[in-house]
Amino acid sequence: MKKLSLLRLVASLLGSALIATTTQAKDFRLGLLTPPQHIWSQAASAFAADFEQHSQGRHKVALFPAAQLGNEAQMLQQLQTGALDMAFLTNAELSNRAPELGALYAPYLVQSVEQAGQLLTSPEVQQLLDQLPARAGVVGLAFGTGGLRQILSRTPVHSASDLKGRKLRVTPIEALRDFYSHLGAAPTPIPLSGVFDALANGQVDAVDMDLELIWGLKFYEKADTILLSKHMMWPVVGVVSARVWRELSPEDRQALQTLMRKHLAQTFTAYIAKEREWEQAARGSGKRIVEVGPEFFAAAIEAWEAKWRQKAPALPALRQLAKSLQ
């Protein structure tokens, strides 16, 4: 009887501990690079409200947009220590820790935002996130997207040779630096907050950017040519600190994953509609518009592929998968 009573006591204590774990309130902090009006920031805000409602007010998520907590490298360090709970990070920063993710920057891997959505939500691409806890100290829950990359130039661009020797602003990742180095340009990392002034004062000659920022942050005002190239997609990843993740109940983990996937999936819908609007606005801006395709970058693409097939073994399979998309 004593043994049975002891077992009942242990079971009761374990049950109480589980209830305490699943009901413990927590105020989470979510950092991201983009300004409040950006589609990623809006998705983060909707996610935060949904998660609080789902938890019946037990959990809250405070947002820190516009790099309030530092650049992405600094935010990733905070995630690794548990000082930051979660973030929407560009795949760019994560690929610096997990080179396999660099395959997602293969030039002309997709032809549209629609295809980017299909590719990034496929099981094959979702599996790429499995390496993040060991390599980056975060748990990757879902992909979203930014717009396709374009080039904005202070001076006219008629051929790829017009970009040779030009200082071209890039996000500081190896995949992008390689692409523009093979093109003969001088890739120049500059924080997003400094791009407008860098264009205005000639610190850079051109920028690699999507139409949302080219138009929304008025970068086009300091340029002559908008090169509509659509040469790369630009994924975002919803992540949670691996340290924080280990402390969460199974119920909270499931809710976080479900809701992050839901709201990051909405970035695909948003960009599909908005990309058309921004392109029409760009065409009506009075700036020189030059439309180019893979042939414009042919030599650079060939050199990039040769290097990245070695660095990211998943690249051939991704190319094959992308070809099957409608």
UniProtKB/TrEMBL annotation:
**InterPro entries noted in UniProt:** DctP_fam, TRAP_DctP_sf
Name the Gene Ontology molecular function terms of this record: carbohydrate binding
Protein name, UniProt field: C4-dicarboxylate ABC transporter substrate-binding protein
For this UniProt record, give its keywords in alphabetical order, as a comma-separated list: Signal
BP terms from Gene Ontology: transmembrane transport
Which NCBIfam families does this entry report, sorted A to Z? TRAP_S1
Top-rank taxon, per record: Bacteria
